[in-house]
Design brief:
single chain; about 650 residues; alpha+beta; Beta-galactosidase, Chain A, domain 5; five-stranded antiparallel beta sheet; 16 helices; 24 strands; globular
């Protein structure tokens, strides 16, 4: 197939009319005004007087983002102040003697984010600034990319392909990373091979190779290595497009994978745009959206590293945040998939779902493409990685239930069989945001099973790592062993036995079954079998990061209250079980997380049934009765006009049987 001549890596001259129009499209107008409103004087002051050439984590990243923003604004508006700012940011990036905070063999800089993203940002800036960059300036940028960017991109990609040839990855002694130096990098060539930090250097090496191909003989080898690495990494996506690191890291990873595929096609005519199931992966992102209603209350800020605050998700763009996911689904990938795959649902996502956070959405979005809303089949989805997400719809007022089964992944928490439940605009059963990345920080506790709506055995959660190597994967596995949908309900059973056996050899069985009668009746059955008598705890976590949550416990009932909705839970207490309210052992400055806890007294067999209902604020809960029978429980009654007749049958080692 013949490929028409292209102006550059990312767009054609003919695209500029559409790109400029996108800046005034209602979908992008607010984002664009935020870009225009950035303080040029503050940015100039930072670049001129505050930037430190040994600070790669925060300062180099800020310079890169200033360059990306200013050069793109100049492309659209030809504003002289933005040109001056872009050139200053470019100059300051070139002033860095090295572009990342890692080394290989104690000599070569190893680029995972700063050298990699910075390389692409500089090449993109050359394209955006065009003739406003002199031949001398262009040559200087290209030489910096060739000497400080591409080698730093190449080293990790090569090392992850051939880990036996790695001499040793280490922290750059000249970089300001003292807060991280306790983290061992010894196994990172193996660990990162299955994480987002493989595809970032891979994509950036490939994009740079496309830029220099035909001019630099080595570019052919760079491109071959990058394509090989991308193909190897593509298996990290499920056949349905699901991604194990969570939807925030999905966005970062898939954006760079798509960028590489786009540049490869545009400049070389090589089509890797089917490398993963791109339409499926947009559906994965859509399935992980969970918009909530803004309480109007301010959430507490927490520092991630010195000079950098942990990000917060805006309620309108809330997500199913298993693990470290803490950012909204972003529209750029969906816009690209809509264009390249003719996918009308991707166009709907690009137009209606998620947040605009990157300039690539402006480059790729085409308002003329048709859009189709999600098909009903997407309301209930067991992902190929065994995470189950079920919902009533896609708006903030709709309800969402998510069960974290499945295997380990980078950026995970110790959260097997944990549950998130959003109803009537509120997080009612919560999974914590903004857990610490470093074990010394008290908020590392938020990574543990104890901080989730999950099961503890004798106060202990399931297996998790000690943080000495970062936020890498554990060994914990859970498996969905039964899953059914239909007639406005969903039932699922997940087996997390193996995850708990790794820390407690007395464990025989840990099963969690959920019965969801849509929209707002949710039944938990937790079955734990042990060789020796031990107590079991089941926790239900309150969302209170904005101070708007309340927890009350009385007898066999607990209530979680949020401004827009309440959740009421009733526990079938038996065999010495009790219900209490408690909170995680964190100091006030580290946040407050309260939970209701069922405590089942020491025994070898535990069967804990909890019936929850949700209602909008001001609306009454129904009256559901739990009757204990010889082989299970019968839940009957009425809730908001819905007649409830559920029999949960549980005998021996057989899976629970749910009848209606």
């Amino acid at each position: 197939m013949s490929i028409p001549a292209r102006r550059g890596l990312f767009f054609d001259a003919a695209d500029l009319v559409r790109i400029r129009a996108n800046t005034t499209d209602p979908r992008f107008a607010e984002f664009w005004q935020e870009q225009l409103a950035a303080d040029v004087a503050s940015d100039t002051r930072f670049l001129t007087h505050e930037l430190r050439l040994t600070n790669h984590v925060v300062h180099l990243l800020r310079a890169q983002r200033i360059l990306e923003r200013a050069s793109f604004i100049y492309l659209v508006n030809h504003n002289a102040d933005q040109l001056t700012l872009a050139k200053l940011a470019m100059r300051r990036m070139l002033d860095y003697p090295e572009w990342d905070c890692f080394t290989e063999g104690g000599r070569q800089i190893l680029g995972l984010q700063r050298a990699t993203e910075g390389t692409v940002a500089l090449l993109q800036a050359l394209e955006c600034l065009g003739d406003a960059v002199s031949a001398t300036e262009r040559e200087e940028v290209e030489q910096a990319v060739l000497t400080k960017g591409i080698p730093a991109c190449y080293v990790p990609v090569y090392g992850m392909k051939y880990p036996d040839r790695v001499q040793g990855w280490a922290w750059n002694p000249r970089s300001e990373v003292d807060a991280f130096r306790h983290i061992s990098l010894k196994r990172w060539p193996l660990i990162l091979n299955a994480t987002n930090l493989k595809i970032i250097p891979t994509a950036c090496l490939g994009i740079a190779a496309c830029y220099f191909k035909g001019r630099i003989p080595q570019a052919d080898g760079w491109l071959e290595l990058a394509r090989s690495s991308a193909r190897a990494f593509s298996t990290m996506y499920g056949s349905d497009g699901s991604y194990d690191e969570g939807v925030s890291y999905w966005g970062y990873t898939t954006l760079y994978l798509a960028l590489f595929a786009e540049v490869l096609w545009r400049t070389q005519g090589i089509d890797d745009r089917q490398l993963i199931n791109y339409p499926g992966t947009v559906r994965y992102a859509l399935g992980n959206t969970m918009p909530t209603i803004d309480s109007g209350l301010k959430s507490v800020d927490f520092q991630h590293v010195k000079g950098s605050m942990m990000p917060k998700v805006k309620p309108a763009f809330d997500i199913v945040n298993h693990g470290d996911s803490n950012g909204a689904v972003e529209v750029s990938v969906a816009a690209w998939v809509a264009r390249t795959h003719g996918d009308s649902l991707a166009q709907f996502v690009a137009r209606e779902i998620g947040e605009v956070k990157h300039l690539y959405g402006l480059i790729w979005y085409d308002p003329q493409l048709p859009a189709s809303p999600p098909e009903p089949a997407l309301l209930d989805w067991r992902q190929s990685n065994d995470i189950v997400i079920s919902r009533t719809g896609w708006t903030a007022r709709d309800n969402v239930l998510a069960l974290r089964s499945g295997g380990p992944g980078n950026h995970e928490h110790a959260d097997r069989n944990s549950v998130i439940f959003k109803a009537y605009g509120e997080r009612l059963l919560h999974d914590p945001f903004r857990a610490a990345y470093m074990v010394q920080n008290p908020r590392w506790l938020l990574r543990q099973t104890a901080a989730h709506t999950a099961v503890l055995i004798n106060g202990q959660g399931h297996q998790y790592h000690d943080g000495s190597e970062g936020t890498n994967a554990s060994w914990a596995v859970a498996t969905v062993v039964d899953y059914k949908t239909g007639d406005g309900r969903m039932t699922v059973t997940s087996d997390a036995t193996e995850a708990y056996q790794l820390v407690n050899d007395q464990v025989i069985r840990v099963w969690r079954s959920l019965v969801w009668l849509k929209p707002d009746v949710l039944i938990f059955l937790d079955l734990v079998s042990l060789r020796t008598a031990q107590p079991v705890q089941v926790r239900f976590q309150l969302y209170n990061e904005d101070g708007g949550g309340q927890l009350a416990v009385r007898d066999d009932e607990f209530t979680l209250t949020r401004p827009q909705a309440t959740l009421r839970g009733r526990v079938a207490l038996a065999g010495g079980a009790t219900l209490r309210a408690d909170r995680l052992p964190l100091e006030p400055q580290d946040g407050e997380q309260q939970f209701a806890e069922v405590v089942s007294a020491a025994a070898t067999e535990h069967a804990i049934l909890t019936v929850c209902t949700a209602r909008p604020t001001g609306k009454d809960h129904g009256h559901l009765k739990i009757v204990v029978e010889t082989d299970g429980w019968r839940v009957t009654g009425e809730h908001d006009g819905q007649e409830v007749h559920v029999f949960v049958r549980c005998t021996g080692t057989m899976l629970p049987v749910i009848t209606f």
